[in-house]
Design goal:
694 residues, alpha/beta, eight-stranded mixed beta sheet, single chain, Rossmann fold, 26 strands
Length: 694
């Protein structure tokens, strides 16, 4: 066990450089990186994919694999250099003194072992304590991470828990030996926003309880604001700005930090009056880094002959606590200058009704014993009496947690599933019972989809051009190969990709570029409706702005109806005209964006809004953490589907929420909710998000 001197840093990284070695050359991943974490302090590490955040974390864990190596600088933990430690000493502190939580919880859990065994192993191996004491501690930490029925959880296997529960177990495992330093690498990316809010609060509370210092890696600036004391912004292997959260958020001193904030939708952003400003150009690959400032080619303040000469060092900014900027011009830039607005867009007025959904139901019959089949049949009610309309040129957002029925509805609309009851009318034509194989070419072309993960939707063995041509052939666009080739090149122009990309393979494209190809393919048949299923959630924040703006631009030009499925209410608020909130197969609230984002809310909408991390220190947010997970659609609760998690349930007399399913009520024109709360109680609701008084 390493002893800690009072008030000395837990983690001290000085001028760290890490490279990966191939047979041909050395690839520098992290260069001249410095950061200090004090006892009990939480440091946030932010930046785009490939900037070196996770490499720094793996360097601290001394887990860089056979090709990775620290080539310069030091990593000191409690004053001792980790680079000089023997493998035996490192094994001693990993898991006990330094613990790490990964993005995907199942990567840390053994599927063949019960949860209790996996938790008990940690103190038994690191501290040599007996089985009874290890079980008692496991029970304590599972209670600490607020899991229901801890004894049952300890007897469960990982597959019997939800994603949020699995992530809580991984946090419990990391805390079993009360580590001094906890490294969290995107720990909430795979979780729903409501579960994320609970996990973030949990991590923060447990950090205080155990006095644990944290290194929190994320691309979400709002999440960093809610969890950390200090922040370090990374770009292309270097730390470009570091300081206290308040200093960096309110008095940023690096052009990249400023560009990041301009590319994320904050309250007040408007897709027509105040469009997001995407960072121009692309993130440089390690072998393509420019001379001088790495951010130079994408910077608004770049000065040739100065910014592209020598390597730039981190400079101390006088205001704030240990505030630093890796910019030659930080004290010459007017950081308070009003933002140059991007080109104002003309709002497209919604046209005629393209899509009409009437009392749509989608039920699945499954065996009660799903593992072996046989026995009684159970019904899963994935969609329950959905009714709404979508118009030409309109963006309708569909929001809700995993398991609420969003993707099931998308499958029925696409023809991948057929409806159990109700109607789907596409320009007056019934399509709810017609599977994709039986649909005519025009109907298939009219309803297209942009998927969440651009990596999984492209054929790795076909060029980009041939994949778009394949879609054009299927949709019978063009009378000859020449016409189709010209149309394919026009589609690349449409999504702002160079025409030479037609000959590239998917592996040669970045994530944002692949998503643009997916959009080009969706619009190949001049689609009337495009279902965008979390289209930007797998992309960096800087790329999200460009892809979102592209979707809006194409929509304006082609008068497309966009059904935008998402759990990110920040982006929904920015781009949606109307919002439909789903919970356990039901539409619980629907209205214009202004109506849904202002009180009165459905209690579930209120909780969703509260859960959204917002990267703005002037915002005050009401904290509502939902207890428990979304119930199973196979065994839904009686009465109101949300009653098992609702904080307003006590306001409804006579146990009505437990007994009756609420009727749909019109609050104002176009604004409806499905809730038992009386009008006078709804009128008392306060805004979840407020801008703090100056």
């Amino acid at each position: 066990m390493i002893k800690q001197e009072t008030d000395s840093p837990i983690l001290e990284i000085e001028q760290l450089s890490i490279s990966f070695f191939t047979r041909l050359n050395e690839i520098p991943a992290v260069m001249d990186f410095s950061c200090t974490v004090q006892p009990g302090e939480a440091m946030g590490l932010v930046g785009e994919s490939g900037c070196g955040k996770s490499t720094v974390a793996l360097g601290v864990m001394q887990d860089l694999g056979v090709n990775g190596r620290v080539v310069g600088g030091t990593i000191k933990f409690k004053g001792q250099d980790l680079n000089l430690m023997s493998p035996e000493d490192l094994r001693e502190i990993r898991g006990s003194e330094i613990a790490m939580i990964y993005q995907e919880p199942m990567a840390s859990l053994n599927p063949a072992m019960r949860i209790g065994q996996q938790l008990m192993e940690v103190p038994m191996i690191h501290e040599g304590i007996n089985k009874e004491d290890a079980y008692a501690r496991a029970l304590e930490v599972v209670t600490d991470v607020k899991l229901p029925d801890p004894e049952r959880i300890l007897k469960s296997f990982p597959h019997q828990l939800s994603g949020g529960q699995q992530q809580r177990i991984v946090i419990a495992m990391a805390l079993m030996s009360k580590p001094s330093l906890l490294i969290l690498d995107e720990p909430t990316t795979a979780l729903d926003v409501t579960v994320e809010a609970a996990v973030v609060k949990l991590v923060k509370d447990l950090g205080k309880k155990y006095g644990t210092s944290m290194l929190f890696i994320s691309h979400n600036l709002g999440l960093i604001l809610e969890t950390c004391d200090r922040i370090c912004v990374m770009y292309s292997g270097e730390a470009v700005e570091t300081g206290r959260i308040e200093d960096v958020f309110n008095k940023m001193q690096h052009p990249y930090t400023q560009a990041l904030f301009r590319s994320i939708p904050l309250p007040g952003a408007d897709k027509n009056d105040r469009p997001l400003v995407a960072i121009p150009g692309n993130f440089p690959l390690p072998h393509e880094r420019p001379n001088g400032c790495n951010f130079g080619p994408r910077c608004d303040y770049f000065q040739a002959g100065r910014c592209n000469q020598d390597a730039i060092q981190m400079d101390i900014v006088p205001h704030g606590d240990r505030h630093g900027s890796r910019c030659l011009k930080w004290n010459e830039i007017d950081w308070d200058a009003p933002l140059e607005l991007a080109e104002r867009k003309i709002k497209a007025e919604p046209g005629h009704v393209i899509l009409k959904i009437e009392n749509l139901k989608k039920y699945y019959e499954v065996a009660a014993n799903a593992l072996f089949g046989g026995g009684n049949k159970r019904v899963v009610k994935a969609n329950e009496t959905l009714s709404f309309e979508a118009r030409e040129s309109e963006t309708l957002a569909i929001v809700g947690e995993s398991g609420c029925g969003k993707s099931t509805f998308a499958k029925v609309l696409m023809g991948l599933e057929t409806a159990t009851e109700g109607e789907i009318l596409l320009e007056g034509k019934n399509i709810e019972g017609v599977s994709i194989e039986a649909r005519d070419t025009k109907t298939v072309a009219d309803v297209q989809m942009v998927f969440q993960n651009p990596f999984d939707t492209l054929n790795p063995s076909m060029t980009i051009g041939s994949q778009i041509l394949r879609a054009l052939e299927l949709f019978r666009i063009g009378n000859s190969a020449r016409e189709r080739t010209e149309r394919m090149l026009e589609l690349l122009d449409l999504v702002k990709l160079p025409r030479e990309f037609a000959n590239r393979m998917p592996r040669q494209l970045s994530g944002g570029q692949k998503q643009r190809v997916g959009i080009a393919r969706a619009f190949a048949g001049d689609a009337k409706i495009v279902v965008a299923d979390e289209p930007v959630s797998a992309l960096d924040v800087s790329v999200q702005a460009a892809v979102t703006d592209l979707l809006m631009e194409i929509q304006r030009e082609h008068k497309t109806t966009l059904l935008f499925i998402s759990h990110d209410l920040s982006i929904v608020r920015y781009l949606a005209d109307r919002v439909l909130v789903m919970y356990l197969g039901h539409v619980v609230e629907m209205g214009t964006t202004e109506q849904v984002f202002q009180p009165p809310y459905h209690p579930y909408t209120e909780a969703l809004l509260s859960a959204v991390p917002i990267a703005d220190t002037s915002i005050q947010k009401k904290r509502i953490v939902l207890e428990g997970d979304i119930p199973s659609a196979m065994n839904p609760p009686s009465g109101c589907p949300f009653q098992t998690r609702c904080g307003w349930k006590g306001e409804v007399p006579g146990g009505l929420c437990d007994i009756d399913l609420p009727e749909v009520r019109q609050l104002t024109r176009g604004h409806q909710i499905k809730c038992h709360l009386a009008d006078d109680i709804l009128a008392r609701m306060e805004p979840v998000i407020k801008i703090a008084a100056e």
